[in-house]
């Protein structure tokens, strides 16, 4: 991937924006874990003829305004929508600020309920668990595979660019474990992942919620390996 412009190339930059493929761009910010440590988080935006659609939010909410400014300057288009892929705050913090700017925010009903239950920010509009946004020259296909990292995690497929946004449902190829399992269902995760692989079998790139991007299906396959290792250890 190539950085969208020079100011985002530094590894220390609070906001890193990289062109992934076609009209898809990944943005990475760093959020704070419960133990106080800092951890990078990936999200994505897609440039369409109708406007720009964000998939998830910057975990570091101070970078939301710089992100919106960059998108407007770089692409000459405004952000028109944001899709939250599950209820955790690395995917929902900032939804209120987006709505206040007149940007439509979307989630499934399952995510909305979990946001309410956990006092996280909530999307204003509900979408079916399986639906397609058609925005001129681009489609965004939302798919709920079943529980995995979280009970409500969805993935998004951009068919024109063959990009699969897995979010936290998918682990990066440099991940050594499944990470935060506080709301995970490791037993259901394998069949859920197999549904994603069957539904979108030939991605050019896969975007995990954290860590390095992956070409083809390597991140999904690596996630399956991590799940199997975890479940084998639990069954001993």
Short description:
Its cofactor is Zn(2+). 26% of the residues lie in helices and 31% in strands.
What descriptive keywords fit this protein?
disordered N terminus, Metallo-beta-lactamase, Chain A, single chain, alpha/beta, 236 residues
Unreliable residue stretches: 1-11
Q: Tell me about the biggest sheet?
A: 8 strands, mixed
CATH classification, class level: Alpha Beta
Question: Could you report the average pLDDT, rounded to the nearest whole number?
Answer: 93
User: How big a fraction of the residues is strand?
Assistant: 25-35%
CATH homologous superfamily annotation: Ribonuclease Z/Hydroxyacylglutathione hydrolase-like
How far the N terminus sits from the C terminus, by CA atoms, comes to: 41 Å
Q: Counting H and I runs of at least 4 residues, what is the number of helices?
A: 6
- The helix/strand class is alpha/beta
Number of strands: 14
CATH topology: Metallo-beta-lactamase, Chain A
Cofactor: Zn(2+)
Family: Belongs to the metallo-beta-lactamase superfamily. Class-B beta-lactamase family.
Subunit structure: Monomer.
Subcellular location: Periplasm
Describe what you observe in this structure.
The chain has 236 residues and is of the alpha/beta class. It has one domain: Metallo-beta-lactamase, Chain A (4-Layer Sandwich), CATH 3.60.15.10. The chain has six helices and 14 strands. The chain has helices at residues 64-75, 89-92, 95-100, 109-117, 186-199, 218-234, and strands at 2-3, 16-21, 24-32, 38-48, 51-55, 79-83, 104-108, 125-127, 131-135, 138-143, 155-158, 163-167, 205-208, 214-215. The strands form two sheets. It has an eight-stranded mixed beta sheet with strand order 1-2-3-4-5-6-7-8. Strands 9-10-11-12-13-14 form a six-stranded mixed beta sheet, with helices on one face. Strand 13 (205-208) and strand 14 (214-215) form a beta hairpin. It is globular. It is found in: Periplasm. Pfam families: Lactamase_B. Its EC number is 3.5.2.6. It comes from Chitinophaga flava.
């Amino acid at each position: 991937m190539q950085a969208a412009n020079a100011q985002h190339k530094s590894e220390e930059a609070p906001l890193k924006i990289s062109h992934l493929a076609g009209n898809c761009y990944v943005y990475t910010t760093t959020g704070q874990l419960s133990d106080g440590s800092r951890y990078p988080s990936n999200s994505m935006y897609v440039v369409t003829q109708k406007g720009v659609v964000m998939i998830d939010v910057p975990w570091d909410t101070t970078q939301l305004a710089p992100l919106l400014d960059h998108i407007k300057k770089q692409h000459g288009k405004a952000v028109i929508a944001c899709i939250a892929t599950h209820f955790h705050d690395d995917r929902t913090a900032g939804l209120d600020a987006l709505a206040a700017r007149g940007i439509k925010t979307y989630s499934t009903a399952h995510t909305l309920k979990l946001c309410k239950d956990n006092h996280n920010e909530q999307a204003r509009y509900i979408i079916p668990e399986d639906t397609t946004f058609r925005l001129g020259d681009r489609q965004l296909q939302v798919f709920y595979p079943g529980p995995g990292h979280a009970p409500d995690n969805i993935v998004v497929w951009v068919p024109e660019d063959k990009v699969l946004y897995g979010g936290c449902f998918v682990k990066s190829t440099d991940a050594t474990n499944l990470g935060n399992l506080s709301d995970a269902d490791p037993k259901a995760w394998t069949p859920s992942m197999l549904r994603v692989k069957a539904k979108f079998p030939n991605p050019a790139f896969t975007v995990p919620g954290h860590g390095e991007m992956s070409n083809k299906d390597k991140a999904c396959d690596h996630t399956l390996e991590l799940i199997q290792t975890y479940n084998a250890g639990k069954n001993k």
